[in-house]
């Protein structure tokens, strides 16, 4: 194994800070949680008529195409498929309704899809009231779509989340860091502000005075729990109390409990058993496992000058620090393992897959595939690893690579991302960059797909504070602009061509399917050494590259050229 060069990369930039614009309170008296609210708010259709420019609304199309092993999903619900909440969780409000956003077909963009717009293409003007709407992204139906949405709170939202089981349930946070819960979003019911711990009956006027300033939140995939992150240190204010900092979980109607407690320097006495340290750690985000049995919480370790993460169960004792896993970046895999990247245990850029106990199943040094920096690696539905990286190290723009070092996209923007957010199905990533233009910092928003397509959506986002992925279709009340276009086939990694006669080179053989899909019937398997004639292809589906073949017996069907780790089709 080649030894990677000794590097001391800079830390990736911190997540996008939340604006601190104080807004008027929503309700003079909040309705208790669990009681249907009596007030109703009429949803106003989202429009862009106030824009002084005409942005080109586009959609990044096509399913994620890569390759690979079929992961063991266990009890995890498939992405985008509703499951019934467990007893004691949030009671579903009515029957989840089918979402039918208004889709406007627009001409395809004139630029080739692989080209990234230059900084000069960014419109400087934004809608007069960007605080009044959020922006939602979805990969429903194999198409990345996005649109502005007016949430039922006139002050706008700094972040929001929707239950993947019941689209009626929406949680949102206003720019003051105040949490609101909406029990019947589809009917436009009024949001309710919780008043139980760590919150208060007294509503804060600004984030600087909010002792329970919420910055991130996420519903569990089974819809029974809502986790949220309280961070009072991040605003730099000394006016609020940091005793509530950490991760909290709401389950049912019985209030919230703390699952991870932080010990900021402002807290003089910390009850957390930190054993051998670290003694200072700051939570940055949170993400549920697909099985809804654990939270992955990225941490900043300021005393060590690096990032790490912890795993927290819903019944975690907040006064006991979980095991610290020192990897810069971590994301859940569908089978409950964790995909890690950035600097690893050796301090060198890498990527790989580890188990929950910290044991590694696969670790690859970035230098071995020609990269000097990696971050935000994920595993696709087919089991293939995708990583953001660069052969020039940190400090510059990144692009998507596969696990073998093949570039999947062009450079994304012209600066390193300050925020990366993957879609729930791991087919696309939202990247936010902060780039200088005429002495001003301009934020650019991109969606990059593992199929290789990159789109800039800065004009569509148009200054919205909250830009988030939703688990299925875009919420109602959305002005959706999309331009579906066929996904161009990726080049074969093994020089497979129509008309070639090849053989099965995988020792275990390969499934012979009736269609290019993992769900297609498998009449039989082809064995090692069986010869095939390539008739058609390739077709990218289920993160695999498929070829239609004819066997020596005349049977015709489909096989994948690789499983992401092992070549399947090769020369005779």
Per-chain topology:
Blueprint: E1 60-61, E2 102-105, E3 134-138, E4 143-149, E5 159-162, E6 170-173, E7 179-182, E8 214-219, E9 225-230, E10 246-251, E11 256-261, E12 282-283, E13 287-288, E14 295-301, E15 306-312, E16 329-332, E17 338-343, E18 349-354, E19 360-365, E20 373-379, E21 385-390, E22 399-402, E23 417-422, E24 428-437, E25 440-449, E26 454-456, H1 458-461, E27 467-469, E28 478-482, E29 501-504, E30 510-512, E31 524-526, E32 531-541, E33 544-551, E34 556-560, E35 569-571
Parallel strand pairs: 2-28, 3-27
Antiparallel strand pairs: 1-4, 3-4, 4-28, 5-6, 6-7, 8-9, 9-10, 10-11, 12-14, 13-14, 14-15, 16-17, 17-18, 18-19, 20-21, 21-22, 23-24, 24-25, 25-26, 29-32, 29-35, 30-31, 32-33, 33-34
Mean pLDDT: 74
Main sheet makeup: 6 strands, mixed
Overall 3D geometry?
globular
User: Uncertain segments of ≥5 residues (pLDDT<50)?
Assistant: 1-128, 475-488
SSE-based structural type: mainly beta
Q: Percentage of helical residues?
A: under 10%
Write down the domain tally: 2
Computed over alpha carbons, the radius of gyration is: 24 Å
CATH architecture of the largest domain: 7 Propeller
Helix run count: 1
- Output the CATH topology of the largest domain: Methylamine Dehydrogenase, Chain H
Beginning-to-end CA distance, first to last residue:
30 Å
Give the class-level CATH name of the largest domain: Mainly Beta
| DSSP, total strands | 35
């Amino acid at each position: 194994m080649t030894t990677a060069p000794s590097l001391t990369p800079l830390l990736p930039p911190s997540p996008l800070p939340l604006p601190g614009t104080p807004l008027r309170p929503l309700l003079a008296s909040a309705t208790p949680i669990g009681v249907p609210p009596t007030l109703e708010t009429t949803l106003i259709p989202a429009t862009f008529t106030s824009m002084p420019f005409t942005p080109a609304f586009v959609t990044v199309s096509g399913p994620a195409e890569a390759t690979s092993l079929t992961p063991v999903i266990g009890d995890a619900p498939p992405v985008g498929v509703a499951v019934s909440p467990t007893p004691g969780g949030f009671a579903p409000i009515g029957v989840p309704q089918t979402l039918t956003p208004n889709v406007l077909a627009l001409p395809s963009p004139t630029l080739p899809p692989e080209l990234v717009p230059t900084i000069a293409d960014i419109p400087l003007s934004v809608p007069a009231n960007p605080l009044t709407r959020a922006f939602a992204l979805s990969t429903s139906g194999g198409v990345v779509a996005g649109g502005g949405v007016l949430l039922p709170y006139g002050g706008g939202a700094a972040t929001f989340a929707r239950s993947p089981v019941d689209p009626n349930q929406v949680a949102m946070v206003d720019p003051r860091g105040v949490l609101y819960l909406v029990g019947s979003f589809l009917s436009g019911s009024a949001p309710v502000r919780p008043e139980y711990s760590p919150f208060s009956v007294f509503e804060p006027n600004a984030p600087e005075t909010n002792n329970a300033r919420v910055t991130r939140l996420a519903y569990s995939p089974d819809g029974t729990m809502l986790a949220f992150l309280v961070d009072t240190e991040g605003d730099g204010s000394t006016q609020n109390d940091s005793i509530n900092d950490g991760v909290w979980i709401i389950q049912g109607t019985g209030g919230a409990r703390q699952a991870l407690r932080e010990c900021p320097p402002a807290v003089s006495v910390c009850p957390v058993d930190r054993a051998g340290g670290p003694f200072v750690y700051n939570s940055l985000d949170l993400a549920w496992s697909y099985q809804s049995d654990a939270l992955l919480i990225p941490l900043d370790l300021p005393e060590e000058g690096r990032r790490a993460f912890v795993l927290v169960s819903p019944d975690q004792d907040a006064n006991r620090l979980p095991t610290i896993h020192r990897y810069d970046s971590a994301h859940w895999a569908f089978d409950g393992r964790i995909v890690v990247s950035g600097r690893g245990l050796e301090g060198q850029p890498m990527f790989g897959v580890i188990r929950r106990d910290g044991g590694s199943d696969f670790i690859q040094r970035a230098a071995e595939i020609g990269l000097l920096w990696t971050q935000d690696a994920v595993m696709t539905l087919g089991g293939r690893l995708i990583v953001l990286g660069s052969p020039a190290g940190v400090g510059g723009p990144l692009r998507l690579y596969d696990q073998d070092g093949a570039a999947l996209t062009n450079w994304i923007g012209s600066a390193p991302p300050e925020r990366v957010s993957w879609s729930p199905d791991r087919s696309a990533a939202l990247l936010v960059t902060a780039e200088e233009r005429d002495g001003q910092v301009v934020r650019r928003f991109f969606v990059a797909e593992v199929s290789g397509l990159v789109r800039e959506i800065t004009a569509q986002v148009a200054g919205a504070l909250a830009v988030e992925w939703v688990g299925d279709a875009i919420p109602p009340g959305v002005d959706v602009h999309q331009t579906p276009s066929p996904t161009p086939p990726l080049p074969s990694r093994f020089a497979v061509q129509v008309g070639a006669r090849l053989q099965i080179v995988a020792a275990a053989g390969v499934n012979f399917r009736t269609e290019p899909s993992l769900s297609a019937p498998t009449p039989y398997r082809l064995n090692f050494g069986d010869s095939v004639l390539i008739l058609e292809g390739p077709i990218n589906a289920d993160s695999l590259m498929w070829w239609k073949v004819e066997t020596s017996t005349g049977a015709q069907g489909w096989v994948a050229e690789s499983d992401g780790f092992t070549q399947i089709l090769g020369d005779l």
